[in-house]
Amino acid sequence: MTHLSALLKSLQPHRLFGSALRGEPHVFDFSPDNPAVALWDTAHFAPFQEAVYGELEQSGKSWGIGRYLEDRSGLLHSYPQIIDEGRVIHAGLDITALPGTALFAPLNSEVIEAGKEEGLGNYGGYVLLRHCLGSEQFYSFYGHLCSRHRVTQGQKLLAGASFAVIGEAEDSGGWFTHTHLQMLTEKAMEQGRMLQGYITQEDLAKVDELFPSPHLLFRY
């Protein structure tokens, strides 16, 4: 993926949230190093939202980031099925933004899927985009979106085109309002891992082959 990294750095992808993000972000610690997260009521939207956005307000920042490849075994305490599978490493980048905030395509894209994953702890509304840069083909995934989708499967988008807005409550799968940005390779798609936002420790050895750093796409 070194070649892809160089291509993306030279292209300067469009800002995912346009001009909506002001200043530097608050970087959340959702890892076991922060014992508070194990006490959060993540099974209910309102208290979960209050906990996360209360911390954001106290930071004095207007938006925040949840880290890529962070161990979230404490935060996932309400989801024993994920814990049992050992999938506790966050494969994406969480960007907090208020409900209704628009997202813009970082690159020229094709909409591969615009759907909704039902159930607490899942993605709610999501969009999968495919990108082609020379011989490189890869995908970007966006979760926790409003499920009244602005785009349809097969639609072509130019970089900078608005394609979704942030959802909340049921549309966010019960998670605090944000989008989960994840990059996937063709190999990850062939393995049927589109909806896996968390991976195992074993996956880390091949993470660049499956889920490259979303920081390659995210500008603010």
Walkthrough of the structure:
- The protein has five helices and twelve strands.
- With about 220 residues, it is an alpha+beta fold.
- It has one domain (about 1-215): Distorted Sandwich (Glucose Permease (Domain IIA)), CATH 2.70.70.10.
- Strands 1-2-4-11-8-7-6-9 form an eight-stranded mixed beta sheet. Strands 3-12 form a two-stranded antiparallel ribbon.
- The longest helix is centred in the N-terminal third of the chain and has 15 residues, at about 45-60.
- The radius of gyration is 16 Å and the shape is globular.
The overall pLDDT, averaged over residues, is: 94
Please work out how many helical segments DSSP would assign: 5
Strand line-up of the largest beta sheet: 1-2-4-11-8-7-6-9
Sketch the major β-sheet.
Answer: 8 strands, mixed
Low-confidence stretches: none
Q: Determine the strand fraction and express it as a percent band.
A: 25-35%
CATH architecture: Distorted Sandwich
Q: Count structural domains.
A: 1
By CATH's scheme, which homologous superfamily applies? Glucose Permease (Domain IIA)
- Overall shape: it is globular
